[in-house]
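Aim 2, interim progress: modelling of the heme C-bound target.
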Amino acid sequence: MIYMKNVIRLASLLLLISITLTGCYYDKENELYPSPKTVCDTTHVTYSKSIVPIMVANCNVCHSTALQQGYIITDTYNYLSGLASPDGPLYNGINWVGGVSKMPKGGAKLSDCDVAKINIWIRAGAPNN
Ligand code: HEC
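Predicted structure of the complex, ligand included:
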């Protein structure tokens, strides 16, 4: 009988401990659902929604059709897509590889998210979508 009592005591002690431990665990909302600003959505990359805004914000200031610095144009689909082959000037320029000028010239590298989007677009064959 003494043996059984000890088994029951031990079992209830374990139960209590496990309830206490799991009871103290709580999910933090911002860890489960990070705010949309910190999420890089690379699932629906399109020319118009993803690439154009990056060019507007970072590249067209020097590479508009009017300015064409370095004879490069980034504000038209036709010209930009012509640069957008894998390992081509656009890829090398924004990834800072291949020995070409680092773009944006004189500025910080694009965010990882923007680089990822452009790389995805290039790999997809630079569609006009
Ligand atoms: C401050 C002006 C400026 C900005 C901003 C800028 N560029 Fe350039 N870019 C240049 C100049 C000038 C050249 C010509 C090469 C040189 O002088 O380094 C050039 C060259 C290039 C080339 C050709 C590189 C080569 O050697 O073949 C590409 C591609 C390019 N830029 C893309 C971009 C993209 C994409 C962005 C935006 C992420 C960007 N540039 C932002 C000034 C700029």
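The chain has a mean pLDDT of 87. The two ends are 78 Å apart (CA to CA).
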